[in-house]
Design goal:
9 helices
């Protein structure tokens, strides 16, 4: 393939041709004309109104049942389904719950709650859903951990020491893995 400078040198006569820019110049002046701008400008009579669609979907939404509208709503039942499912798991025994799944629910709730409050405009309703999702996850994780430690027959002080020791050992393992992964 020839070098770039050769290609640009060979194309230079095309760029120097004045007729080449007539399309872009005429297009630019057409978009800058007041007739074009007035066609897309808002009139003062309807400045405060929102655009209203006239397609079939808008008419169809008015004929939906209450349940269908609530299900499809951004703050409706579908949004709260994961929280409701987590609350329903309160009745399940702790030994049948998944620790990793509930840690994921907790992390998801915390991360998305923070994100909903950072974005502009703030989505407080979605933040509320995710906050409660995180709360459900925290309750379930605490139930699972309480069951795991009570199953061993240890006192709370012994359980705390064991958790501390396992955390320290896990941190040492991670540190060794990081050192092994770094190039020497």
């Amino acid at each position: 393939m020839p070098p770039t400078s050769t290609l640009l040198r060979s194309a230079r006569p095309l760029f120097q041709n004045a007729n080449h820019f007539t399309f872009s110049t005429s297009t630019r002046t057409a978009f800058r004309s007041t007739q074009f701008q007035n066609a897309f400008a808002r009139s003062t009579a309807r400045a405060g109104r929102r655009f209203q669609s006239t397609d079939a979907a808008a008419g169809e939404a008015a004929t939906k049942s209450w349940f269908a509208r609530m299900w499809d709503s951004p703050v409706g039942l579908k949004t709260w389904a994961l929280v409701i499912a987590g609350i329903a798991d309160f009745n399940r025994p702790a030994e049948k719950l998944s620790l990793t799944q509930n840690i994921a629910l907790t992390a998801t709730g915390a991360i998305w709650t923070r994100w909903c409050l950072i974005i502009q405009p703030r989505n407080v309703l979605l933040a509320a859903v995710n906050f409660f999702l995180g709360c459900v996850g925290v309750v379930q994780v605490s139930r699972i951990l309480a069951w795991q430690y009570s199953d061993k027959g240890e006192s709370p002080k012994e359980q705390l020491e064991a958790a501390k020791d396992s955390t320290v050992e896990a941190a040492k393992g991670v540190k060794e893995d990081v050192k092994a992964a770094l190039p020497k």
